[in-house]
Amino acid sequence: MEIEKTPIDGVVLVKPKVWGDARGYFVETWQKERYEAAGIHLPFVQDNHSMSRRGILRGLHYQKTRPQGKLVSVSLGRVFDVAVDIRKGSPTFGKWFGVELTQENQWQMWIAPGLAHGFAVVSEEAHFHYKCTDYYCPGDEAGIRWNDPDIAVAWPVDNPLLSAKDAEAPFFRDVFGV
Fold it and tell me: Is the bond leading into 60 cis (omega within 30 degrees of zero)?
């Protein structure tokens, strides 16, 4: 397993070893001691799996008072995955980091509590997995507009398909006063 730091503290790329041959591949997706040694030591309490089609964009989501850390990965397809630092006082507040997670590379991204998260599907279909450090709390969820000009994420999709909630999410400056 290789660990790659990103420009945002609390966002880490995990590149697991993939063993493959003519039959397929095997990858270890979680092992407590190895991940703790890499700095990912919060307990996970919930796993989620979503399926989306090409051009779907989900995000940018976060929970206000019960922030979730997320270890995310793709088992089928490809997504452009994004984390946005929404921690006031952080030196990277308002900055984003994105990477393509694919079934081929089997990379994972660790997104610490206090960051917003979203992804766009760039393959025909994608199966996306989340290991979360807190429970989903519908009354606590919030979002930031996916195409917010102050954040300026370079999404690889032009006219994404969005939920009504994501299409109407507030802008960064309206939420955080910057």
Answer: yes
List 35, 62, 130, 136, catalytic entry: 130
Contact 11/70 with Cβ under 8 angstroms?
A: no
| pLDDT beneath 70, residues of the chain | none
Q: What is the DSSP letter of 84?
A: E
CA atoms of 52 and 122, how far apart (whole Å): 10
61: annotated active-site residue: yes
Active-site residue, 117 included:
no
Say if pTM beats, i.e. exceeds, 0.90: yes
The domain made up of 2-176 is a member of CATH 3.30.70.790: no
46, 45, 48, 55: which is closest to 77 by C-alpha? 55
- pLDDT tens by residue, 31-78: 999 999 999 999 999 999 999 999 999 999 999 999 999 999 999 999
Pick the catalytic residue: 35, 61, 62, 117? 61
| For the chain, domain boundaries | 2-176
